[in-house]
Write a structure and sequence with these properties.
Number of helices: 1
Structural class: mainly alpha
Distance between the termini: 38 Å
Order of helices and strands: H
Largest sheet: none
Helix content: over 70%
Number of domains: 1
Shape: elongated
Oligomer: single chain
């Protein structure tokens, strides 16, 4: 069983957005 199968699409999307935001912020700081 895959990990994402245990979560709702919305939760997965929120996680992806959080990662993207963190990446963008870290890139901006650097």
């Amino acid at each position: 069983m895959e990990a994402y199968d245990m979560r709702t699409p919305a939760a997965v999307t929120e996680d992806l957005h959080a990662v993207l935001l963190e990446t963008m912020l870290s890139d901006t700081v650097c």
